[in-house]
């Protein structure tokens, strides 16, 4: 089988992953504590920042919920199957929680989503559609980051270190777009081609399985124009709602009505999600990064830090929902019993 359930906690590989998760989480917490100390914040400051958001946090959760819906809708569209949106949404939230809480990121989250729907469809098929959906989403992320970084360069007078980081981000996203264009045109059989070069019958069998899986992926990306427009619309809506969420949160925290800081912060969030995916929940990374970025563009560093804190609380809420959904799904009896 191409998809296999993860090893049980007693297996050595699982123990190593737990240790790695704890080490990365500890490093993130250390960065978080250092940032709080550097900014001179205390528990009262954190409580006051969260109080500024107050019941508006429900609106923030609602915006993030609709973003989950859009990603799930794009995935269902690429499967070409009549999968109920509510099931795909539950799988998306569940898999996202697993990916955020472990250092494996997409390696854990995407197979988990496909396995969540194994009663509705072949996991190999839904996983192939997920890979295709991530391809289109990655292209949209690259474009969004380029727009945000360009706006940052044009509008703000940046310190040299921040300017260099922005240039690296621009270069990285340009590489992503170039690679995406090559994949779309050439449709290379990369994994199966590499496996086919290995000696032995087992390697050849594995290469055949990956070749079939790659064919499924390219088949998912080759849907009719209407489906691709639907996916593009979902990606545009996802980023638009993320921007609105970021603007709303920063307005509540800092009283800042300008749109440009929110665009810059949200673009940074995309980069942090990619570069620091292995850090569970990006603890310390986003909080410290947004604090530094806020100071670099002439805003209050502590307001940027609190923006990261509010995002983290939102992530924790959805991680809890995702784990609960996973537990309920695991406890449910198989269909037909």
Q: What structural category do the secondary elements indicate?
A: mainly alpha
Secondary-structure element string? HHHHHHHHHHHHH
CA radius of gyration = 21 Å
Helix content percent band: over 70%
Strand content: under 5%
Total number of strands: 0
Distance between the termini: 24 Å
Most strands sheet: none
> Based on CA inertia axes, which overall geometry fits?
globular
Low-pLDDT regions = 1-10
SS element count, helices: 13
On the 0 to 100 scale, the average pLDDT is 86
Number of domains: 1
Task: Describe what you observe in this structure.
- This protein has one domain (13-330).
- With 337 residues, it is mainly α.
- It is built from 13 helices and no strands.
- Helix 8 (190-196) packs antiparallel against helix 9 (201-221).
- The longest helix has 33 residues, at 123-155.
Question: What's the short version?
Answer:
80% of the residues lie in helices and 0% in strands. By secondary structure, it is mainly alpha-helical.
Highlighted features:
disordered N terminus, mainly alpha, 0% strand, single chain, 337 residues
């Amino acid at each position: 089988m191409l998809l296999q359930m993860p090893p049980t906690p007693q297996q050595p590989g699982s123990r190593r992953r737990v240790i790695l998760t704890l080490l990365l989480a500890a490093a993130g917490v250390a960065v978080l504590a250092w940032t709080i100390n550097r900014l001179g914040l205390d528990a009262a400051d954190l409580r006051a920042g969260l109080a500024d958001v107050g019941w508006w946090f429900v609106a923030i959760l609602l915006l993030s919920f609709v973003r989950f819906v859009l990603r799930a809708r794009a995935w269902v569209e690429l499967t070409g199957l009549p999968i109920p949106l509510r099931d795909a949404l539950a799988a998306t939230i569940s898999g996202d929680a697993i990916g955020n809480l472990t250092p494996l990121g997409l390696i854990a989250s995407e197979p988990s989503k496909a396995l969540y729907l194994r009663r509705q469809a072949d996991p190999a098929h839904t996983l192939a559609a997920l890979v295709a959906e991530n391809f289109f989403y990655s292209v949209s992320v690259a474009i969004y980051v380029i727009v945000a970084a360009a706006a940052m360069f044009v509008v703000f007078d940046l310190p040299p270190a921040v300017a260099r980081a922005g240039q690296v981000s621009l270069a990285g996203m340009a590489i992503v777009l170039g690679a995406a264009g090559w994949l779309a045109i050439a449709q290379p059989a990369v994994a199966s081609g590499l496996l086919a070069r290995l000696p032995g019958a087992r390697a050849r069998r594995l290469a055949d399985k990956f070749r079939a899986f790659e064919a499924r992926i390219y088949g998912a990306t080759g849907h009719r124009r209407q489906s691709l427009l639907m996916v593009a619309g979902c990606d545009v809506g996802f980023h638009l709602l993320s921007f609105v969420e970021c603007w709303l949160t920063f307005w509540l925290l800092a009283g800042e009505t300008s749109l440009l800081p929110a665009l810059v912060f949200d673009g940074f969030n995309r980069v942090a999600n990619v570069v620091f995916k292995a850090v569970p929940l990006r603890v310390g990374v986003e909080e410290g990064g947004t604090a530094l970025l806020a100071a670099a563009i002439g805003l209050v560093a502590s307001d940027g830090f609190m923006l990261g804190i509010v995002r983290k609380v939102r992530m924790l809420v959805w991680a809890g929902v995702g784990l609960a959904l996973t537990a309920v799904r695991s406890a449910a009896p198989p269909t037909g019993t």
